[in-house]
């Protein structure tokens, strides 16, 4: 093996090439990214970076000169137009690169509003990359009116930052409640109260009919017949895996690029990792959109490129920062039928998801001990008695030994 080529210079791509070098691979490595910036952290973009609390250079996962020092060819601002699996080449416009092994770490893209309802108007933004945040940053001025479409974590995090900046924020969610697709009603209630106390207007069960304005958005018509004026809009209605290159190359898709447990696709010498990849997990197939998954899965693929033959065993965890609340999530709550509440202080609590007697996941708000214990219990396949969780006298660490 002499040349490993990686398409996608985000968290997964960067983690993979670093792991290759740290594992002793001394062949050629090329990392191709569509953006002009070197690989950077995305979570702080819409928080500390937008608030002006983090400089651009601090976003970078590694110093700019790191890649050259490690003899990693970093091709930025470069779009890959096609992959030829038979010839083992990729096309960069008129240029062709050959590879011995190819890894797709192409990530995901935000869903956008259709142009037919005003999605192409100026002042309508998504929150995904550096260019998005740089473009919306001038609008974050006290008194500006912001409409957020979508009550998931992206929308709520944007609301928290905007409120801190003194903006007038309205959030609309077409589902019955915010976070409906990802969390229990208890978690929705917690964050609705948090945002309402900070002055955010949350309108649930209310969809967007269309945005109005000639060239720049000036207002919105909502599904309940009401209208409101706005200076700009942030759309947070989910993301989709970037699979176009893979699909054109004949790579099988299944909620993303379909891989086996070790990261291989159906095409020889083509692998995938990160947001774009779906993989086997506890008898089903999942795709995880998180920084921890991007890092861990990419590192396992790097090891397998070097012959480790190691299955990726996901340990799902996520986080969200809103105001002075840190939400930490361990596990996947899909299929839960009971939520157990462990109350702490007014600001600290946790919600534990059960299916029957099996613990699936935990949402911990400013409760790091609950999160850590929950994460370890889930990874160990242990399910404590729900009554133990509701008892404030329970020694949480003792649950790990039971």
Chain-wise SSE layout:
Elements: E1 3-7, H1 11-22, E2 28-32, H2 56-59, H3 66-69, E3 72-75, E4 82-84, E5 89-92, E6 95-98, E7 101-104, E8 108-110, E9 124-126, H4 130-136, E10 145-149, H5 153-164, E11 168-173, H6 185-197, E12 201-204, E13 208-212, E14 219-222, E15 227-229, E16 232-235, E17 239-241, H7 244-248, E18 257-258, E19 270-272, E20 277-281, E21 284-286, H8 291-305, E22 317-322, E23 325-331, E24 338-343, E25 349-355, E26 358-365, H9 368-380, H10 386-390, H11 396-399
Parallel strand pairs: 1-2, 1-7, 2-3, 7-19, 9-16, 10-11, 10-16, 11-12, 18-20
Antiparallel strand pairs: 4-5, 5-6, 8-17, 13-14, 14-15, 20-21, 22-23, 23-26, 24-25, 25-26
In terms of DSSP E residues, the strand content is 25-35%
Shape: globular
The radius of gyration computed from the alpha-carbon positions, rounded to a whole number of angstroms, is: 22 Å
Number of helices: 11
Strand order of the largest sheet: 3-2-1-7-19
* Total beta strand runs: 26
Low-confidence stretches: none
CATH architecture annotation name of the largest domain: 3-Layer(bba) Sandwich
Q: Domains counted in the coordinates: how many?
A: 3
User: What's the CATH H-level superfamily name of the largest domain?
Assistant: FAD/NAD(P)-binding domain
Average pLDDT: 96
Between the first and last Cα atoms, what is the distance in angstroms? 48 Å
Helix content: 10-25%
CATH topology of the largest domain: FAD/NAD(P)-binding domain
CATH classification class of the largest domain: Alpha Beta
Largest sheet: 5 strands, parallel
């Amino acid at each position: 093996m002499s040349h490993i080529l990686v398409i996608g210079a985000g968290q997964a791509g960067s983690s993979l090439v670093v792991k290759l070098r740290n594992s002793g691979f001394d062949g050629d490595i090329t990392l191709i990214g569509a953006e002009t910036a070197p690989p950077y952290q995305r979570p702080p973009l819409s928080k500390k970076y937008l608030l002006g609390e983090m400089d651009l250079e601090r976003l970078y996962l590694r110093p700019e000169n790191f890649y050259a020092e490690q003899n990693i060819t970093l091709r930025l601002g470069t779009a890959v137009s096609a992959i030829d699996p038979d010839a083992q080449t990729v096309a960069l416009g008129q240029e062709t690169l050959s590879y011995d092994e190819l890894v797709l770490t192409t990530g995901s893209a935000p869903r956008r509003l259709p142009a037919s309802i005003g999605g192409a108007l100026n002042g309508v933004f998504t929150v995904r990359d550096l260019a998005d945040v740089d473009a919306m940053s001038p609008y974050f001025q006290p008194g500006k009116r912001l409409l957020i479409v979508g009550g998931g974590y992206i929308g709520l995090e944007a609301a928290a930052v905007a409120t801190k900046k003194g903006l007038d924020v309205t959030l609309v969610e077409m589902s019955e409640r915010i976070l409906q697709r990802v969390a229990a009603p208890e978690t929705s209630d917690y964050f609705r109260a948090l945002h309402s106390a900070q002055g955010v207007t949350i309108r649930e069960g209310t969809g967007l009919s269309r945005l109005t304005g000639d060239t720049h958005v000036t207002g919105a018509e909502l599904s309940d017949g009401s209208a409101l004026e706005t200076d700009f809009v942030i759309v947070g209605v989910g993301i989709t895996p970037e699979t176009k290159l893979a699909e054109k190359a004949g790579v099988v898709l299944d909620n993303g690029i379909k891989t086996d447990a070790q990261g291989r696709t159906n095409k020889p010498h083509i692998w995938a990792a990160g947001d774009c990849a779906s993989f086997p997990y506890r008898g089903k197939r999942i795709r995880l959109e998180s920084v921890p998954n991007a890092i861990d899965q990419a590192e396992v693929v790097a090891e397998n490129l070097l012959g480790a033959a190691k299955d990726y065993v996901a340990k799902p965890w996520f986080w969200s920062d809103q105001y002075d609340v840190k939400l930490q999530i361990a596990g996947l709550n899909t299929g839960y039928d009971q939520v157990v509440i462990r109350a702490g202080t007014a600001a600290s609590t946790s919600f534990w998801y059960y299916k029957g007697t099996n613990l699936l996941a935990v949402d911990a708000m400013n409760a790091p001990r609950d999160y850590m214990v929950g994460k370890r219990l889930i990874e160990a396949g242990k399910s404590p008695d729900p009554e133990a969780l509701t008892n404030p006298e329970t020694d949480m660490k003792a649950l790990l030994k039971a």
